[in-house]
Design goal:
283 residues, mainly alpha, Cytochrome Bc1 Complex, Chain C, 2 domains, 66% helix, globular, disordered C terminus
Length: 283
């Protein structure tokens, strides 16, 4: 009798090679499923169990996922742009012109990267506003709110460091104004400006420093905090919903209102009207 695909796959999962890679083994029990998640390098960031409502779509889910989508789009468009760019004063502006007029689809690639950056800044602010408005920063999500604020600052720094890379007049004077604003910080303003520019003026040192920050340090830092952010969302009980928060559920149980929905009537059964109730009481 011919074997089915499931049978072949079952035999494959019992081989020594498969078991050496996937150590949790097979099985449909709750324990086997939990071990499979905990021992997976990609899935161990998530909880072994999640609430059903977390898997549904909501405005918060859309805002957070769209923000992640714009970040991935920035990475996908930024890597090809790095192949055509030299972080040097004589060549940076010429590379921008080559992308605009010489490289095939270069203008589209650069504009897609630029507009994705604008969309990411807008979505991060919208996401933060939504979380603040819903009160989702409260217990037990305080730490994840701090992580979100850090990601907001990283997003702004990514946008700011990328502003200098075209090395045109707009970029030069925008960074000059921004660094002068940073120098106005009391006590340590001059040190911040020197650390930001790598000197006392916007020159080749500043361009190289902004390039390294924009293409390497800040994206890797953002990936690290995004992983922590998603991990804490799962560990803190999923996306925020006021009706299913532990305090609300305990209060509802204490008040005898665990089931907010009224009991359903049987088919054919009529609801008692005030008149019928009074008649029953009289009888």
């Amino acid at each position: 009798m011919a074997k089915t695909v499931d049978q072949y796959f079952g035999e494959l999962r019992e081989t020594r090679v498969w078991r050496s890679i996937f150590r949790s083994g097979t099985g449909s029990s709750t324990l086997k499923r939990a071990v499979a998640i905990q021992q997976n390098v990609f899935l161990h960031l998530f909880s072994t169990k999640v609430r059903t409502r977390v898997l549904g779509f909501s405005a918060t889910w859309y805002l957070g996922t769209l923000t992640l989508g714009t970040f991935l789009l920035l990475v996908a468009t930024g890597i090809p742009l790095m192949l055509y760019y030299h972080p040097s004063v004589p060549q940076a502006y010429a590379d921008m012109k080559d992308l605009q007029f010489v490289v095939s689809s270069g203008l589209f690639l650069r504009n897609l990267h630029r507009w994705s950056a604008h969309a990411m800044v807008f979505l991060v602010f919208a996401h933060m506003f939504k979380v603040f408005y819903r009160g989702a920063y409260r217990t037990p999500r305080e730490f994840n709110w701090v992580i979100g604020v850090v990601l907001l600052l990283i997003t702004l720094l990514l946008s700011y460091t990328g502003y200098l890379l075209p090395w045109d007049q707009l970029a030069y004077w925008a960074i000059t104004v921004g660094s002068n604003i940073a120098s106005a910080v009391p006590l340590m303003g001059d040190k911040i400006r020197f650390l930001l520019l790598g000197g006392h003026a916007v020159n080749a040192n500043a361009l190289l420093r902004f390039y390294v920050l924009h293409c390497m340090i800040l994206p890797l830092t953002a990936m690290f905090f995004v992983a922590i952010h998603f991990w804490r969302i799962r560990k803190d009980g999923g996306l925020y919903s006021h009706s299913s928060e532990p305090e609300v559920v305990r209060a509802r149980v204490a008040n005898g209102r665990e089931d907010e929905n009224p009991p359903s009537r049987k088919i054919g059964e009529k609801e008692d009207t005030p008149s019928t109730v009074s008649v029953k009481e009289e009888q």
